[in-house]
Write a structure and sequence with these properties.
By secondary structure, the chain is an alpha+beta fold. The protein has 16 helices and 18 strands.
Length: 547
């Protein structure tokens, strides 16, 4: 006889067996805050030019060595629901601006840390969230007054290089001048007249060997592939692009051919050959000198392409095919037909080259014709090149941001220190319980110069007192000097350390919004996980493995 075990009373009695339920300050609010604090603490050490790298091995056992917060977050696979809210806020920041993801996580973590103290003192979480919202509104109001420099012409290489340096410096400290100039040249060369700048138009090709200072910009596209036939170079090339294999077409249905003599066998294969020759001859007559295929290029097809002096290139990615068509102005053809003049693309020079010992096929466009630029990155290891790619990606996104709004604020923690000072003064004028939360908001902003100093091995409290002293004297652009010995402060504008205004604007918004959302949660209800057998490899030994 089965025994009926009564369910525990209260909320759990409504849920399925195995469901978990946490309520109240201790179980829900503080539990959420402690998870977010731990997460924020993990990423603190990766902030700034002297930030340490993290070694992350994802579920596919791929190794990442980077201090780029967006990559770390993406590969960590966060489980905790409150920490996930912070991750979503940082991902929104990544989509909006492409930079400042670590800023969002650290600031949201600092706000929650401040909120924990206030709640333990007796404030209600919603009062704290309201105070944070008031402080955010004030911060966004005074932020435009802190702008200290502006890119007036997004086509001026010197101005743009100056604006991109800081974005690269936080990832690739020491290589920022070289890489900033490289990215500035690539972005300006393809900046359209009327439409907005598309980040996807700056491609990256990573080739092992040599050093990072051998990296270069190529107008057009670079593929780490060799050509298929014997023709390796074409000037003023006309291109036909196919998304299908360039080969003898096979029929959809199976057919049986009965061959009785040797002549019939010869005629049968000759029919295939003559059809292929007709196709290639038609291309040659249409003026096509380069064929790009998305699939296999057959031996027979290759023979006739060589015969008619047509260059053959095979690309395996359909995205690369689309981008190439965008570069050369061609139309992708889904089957082996001769293209019309409108479907043929044009490229100044298509050729096979060798970078280091890696063969590359380059589609180069000259002058104003170029719609896509490729940055060829050189480096000693794949991990190092991946990290340079992330820095370049941040810089390209910053360029997109400065095309929308060219204003910059001072970097090196100076903007955060000045905001903190102004918001603290504002908090003193506010009546009610919100003033405590506003004060905590101001304190949370000071985490940035503090962490910059920590990561450089300087004394954080001494740095903060030096910074606050300078800002009280009216030196609003003073930040932490990561190159000096000890707790030095410098004028960030003299050292040309600038942060994009829009990046700070959105980061403040997203971080505060995430922190407030977490504070307003008072219950966590987790349904029972879906059952099922454990995946292989989770047990002691896989039954298929023979020892």
């Amino acid at each position: 006889m089965a025994l009926h075990v009564p369910k525990p009373p209260g909320f759990t009695s409504m849920l399925k067996d195995g469901a978990r339920h946490y309520a109240g300050l201790e179980e829900a609010v503080f539990r959420n805050i402690s998870a977010c604090k731990e997460f924020s603490k993990t990423l603190k050490t990766a902030y700034g030019p002297q930030g340490r790298n993290k070694m992350v091995i994802n579920h596919l056992e791929k190794l990442f060595i980077t201090n780029d917060a967006a990559t770390i977050i993406k590969e960590l696979e966060i489980e905790h629901p409150a920490a996930k809210l912070m991750v979503l806020a940082s991902q929104m920041q990544e989509q909006e601006m492409g930079d400042g993801t670590n800023w969002v996580i650290m600031f949201a973590g600092a706000l929650l840390e401040g909120a924990e103290d206030l709640i333990r003192m007796g404030l209600i979480p919603t009062d704290v969230a309201d105070g944070y919202q008031l402080a955010l509104n004030k911060a966004l109001e005074v932020l435009p007054s802190l702008t200290c420099w502006e890119v007036t012409d997004p086509r001026n290489v010197e101005q743009v290089t100056k604006g991109l340096r800081t974005a690269i410096m936080s990832k690739q400290y020491g290589n920022e001048d070289f890489l900033a100039k490289l990215v500035a040249r690539a972005c300006i060369s393809i900046l359209p007249e009327k439409t907005t700048f598309n980040v996807d138009n700056v491609r990256i090709c990573k080739i092992l060997g040599s050093g990072v200072h051998k990296s270069e910009v190529v107008q057009g596209m670079v593929f780490r592939r060799t050509v298929e036939g014997s023709v390796t170079s074409k000037e003023k090339a006309k291109l036909a692009v196919y998304s299908c294999p360039f080969d003898v077409t096979t029929t959809e249905t199976k057919g049986t051919v009965l061959i009785k003599s040797a002549d019939e066998l010869q005629n049968f294969s000759r029919g295939e050959e003559s059809k292929m020759e007709e196709d290639v001859k038609a291309l040659s007559e249409a003026g096509v000198t380069v064929v790009v295929a998305g699939g296999k290029i057959g031996d027979l097809a290759l023979h006739y392409l060589n015969k008619y002096n047509i260059m053959a290139v095979r690309l395996t990615s359909k995205w690369d095919l689309r981008r190439l068509c965008k570069t050369v102005g061609a139309t992708v053809l889904p089957k082996l037909t001769c293209p019309t003049p409108e479907e043929i693309g044009f490229c100044d020079h298509v050729f096979l080259d060798e970078v280091g010992d890696t063969p590359v096929t380059i589609f180069r466009q000259k002058g104003a014709e170029s719609r896509i630029a490729t940055i060829v990155i050189r480096g000693s290891t794949d991990n190092y090149m991946d990290d340079i790619e992330r820095a370049v990606d941040d810089a390209v996104n910053t360029f997109k941001g400065l095309c929308r709004d060219g204003r910059f604020v001072a970097g090196a923690g100076s903007t955060e220190t000045e905001l903190s000072r102004l918001i603290e003064l504002y908090g003193l004028q506010c009546p009610g319980l919100e003033q405590y939360a506003i004060k905590k908001f101001a304190e949370a902003l000071l985490i940035f110069p503090k962490v910059l100093a920590d990561n450089c091995g300087a004394l954080d409290q001494e740095t903060l007192s030096n910074l606050l002293a300078a800002h009280t004297e009216g030196k609003t652009n003073f930040g932490f000097d990561c190159e000096g010995d000890g707790s030095f402060v410098i004028d960030a504008t003299e050292k040309e350390i600038y942060d994009l205004y829009l990046t700070k604007y959105w980061a403040l918004k997203y971080a505060t919004s995430a922190a407030n959302q977490i504070l307003r949660v008072d219950q966590i209800i987790m349904a029972k996980r879906a059952g099922g057998p454990k995946p292989r490899g989770m047990g002691a030994q896989d039954p298929d493995d023979d020892e």
